[in-house]
Every structure is written in structure tokens, then in C-alpha cells.
Amino acid sequence: MNRRVRSSLSIALLLAMAVLQSGTATARDLVLAEAHPPTHPIVKSEELLVRRVAELTNGEINIQLKHSGQLGNEDAAWKNIRAASLDMTRINFATLVNEVPAAKLLGLPYLFRSRDHMWHVLSGDFGKRLENEIAKTGAVLLTYYDSGTRSFYTTKKPIRVRSDFDGQKIRVQGSPVYKDMITLLGGTPVVLPYDKVLDALRTGEIDGAENNIPSYVSAEHYKYARYYSFDEHSSVPEVLLISKKSWDSLNPEQQKAMMTAAAESNVLMKKLWAEAEARDLAKAKKEGAVIIEKNDLGMSGIEAYALKLYSKYVTDPTDLKTVLTILQSK
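User: That's the sequence. What structure does it adopt?
Assistant: C-alpha cells below.
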């Protein structure tokens, strides 16, 4: 074999090895579990995440988005993230309360004065605590997603001051703190599955409920509960997670790309959620809903009752100090 032939074979071998190595580098798939349907703003934001991760890694990372609960509900996703049998998921902080102590504090009523206040708190020391506690479970926090604020809506009369709760049967989730809050405010808490609320409002089984504007409209609760009082008593964000095992399998550049794409999806989610709120609020008003703005509520009286719950449900002195710091922050 002459020198020219040997040289040609060597070049061909090197090219073949380069192609093989290149092919190996692109074979990294991640699965993202999502309970919401494809029309939900969160899924639209996750679709941006998928595209941007692929772009920023030059196709090295491919995220397969499994929406509509294809891989189970949020409880199952959280369990699988901790077991490292699932790469990524988006869930509400309420799902994390048993393993992430700080998540319990997020569910306290009237903890945040506004959405801006919540984002400010999450970007500070409390947000760092959440990240650290999540890390101890075997997961990495990538970003937060907006899920709006919950307010009360009623069928017979609007809620403007504390005494307006007297005698009203208000549907709440199964959370003990919210059942106690309604009782303290003078109402009667009624725990019902979400899909039963519309009929309960129509028949008078309950006098009101609480949720964000998009849910108030999409579930058609506004047709029977005409009065929506913007007290914004609850604001609990969603969180995008990746398992620690999957995170550690990425190189530093890929991790940077993931964080960049997650931050961009956060911005889009805020925009889409704000648009959904504005659109649905306009629809509710057009069809006869009466909206009582926060400035028109006697909030000091309502909040004073709710604050009594803190000493009952926040027994750790450090946590109580954290809550007071949040309440006093700007």
C-alpha cells in the first residue's frame, strides 16, 4: 500500500470517528411532564423552552414535552422527579409542602400584597431558601411560572368588608388554613371537588368560591357568582424542576442554556397570563359580572382576621420571623 493510499485511509478514518462522536453528542433526550392541555399558557411557555434549549445547545439537548397528564398527575411527577425516574416537570408549590418546608409558607393567606411583591420576595433570600430546600429533595429549580392570584366571588352580595362573610357558605380547597380563615371571617367553609363547584353555585349549595380570573371565567362560575372581589388573598406560583440526576448529566454550557431558556419561558408565561387575565376579565364584565377592585375593599379588617391564623399554623420561630419579614418587605 503506497503512502498516498495510506494517507487517504487515515483521513477517511478520522472523518468517520468525528461523525460518530458528533452523533453521540446529539443523542441526549429529556422528558418534561406537564398536566395542563396544549392550549394553556404554561404549555405555550414550555414549548418556547423546548425550542430555545435545542437552539442554544445546537441540537445536543432535545426535550420531549408530554402535556395533558400523559405521564400522570402532579403528585406522580413530583414523586418521579425525586426518584430520578423523570427528567423534568412543572408543578404547583402546593404539591411540594411535605418535602419542602418553606413551600408551606407560600400558602398562607394575604402573605403577598401583590404579584410584584411576590416576585420581589422570590428573587431574594426566601427564594434562595426555596431553591436550597428543593435541592435537598434531589431536584433543581429552573424557574417560576405565574399562576395568578385567587380572590373571592359570590352569588348573593359582594364581599367588600369582613362582615360581608357573615352567613356565607364559601367553597374552599381542603387546606386547613383556608377552612379556618373562612370560619374566622364569619362564613362557613365548604370543601367541594372543583368540578362540582358550578352546580353548587347554581343550586345554592354554596354562596361563593375563590379562584383566579381565568378559572372563574373558563369554568363559567361567573354566570352564577356575579360578584368578584379582588382581595388577592392567595398567590402561589408554579415551579419548573429538573431532577438532580438529569441536571448533573448536562455539561456546564448545557446547564447555562437550560437556565437561559427557562428564564425566557418565565417572561413569556407572565405575558401570556396577563393577556389571559385581561381577556377573561373583559369577558366577565361584558356578560354582567360586577368586579370590586382591591382599592374598594376594606382589606385591613379582612387581613387582621387572617393574620390571626399565622400564630396557629407557623409554630417554628424562624418561620414566623420569615413571614413577618415578608409582610414588612416592600
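Residues 16 and 22 are 10 Å apart (CA to CA).
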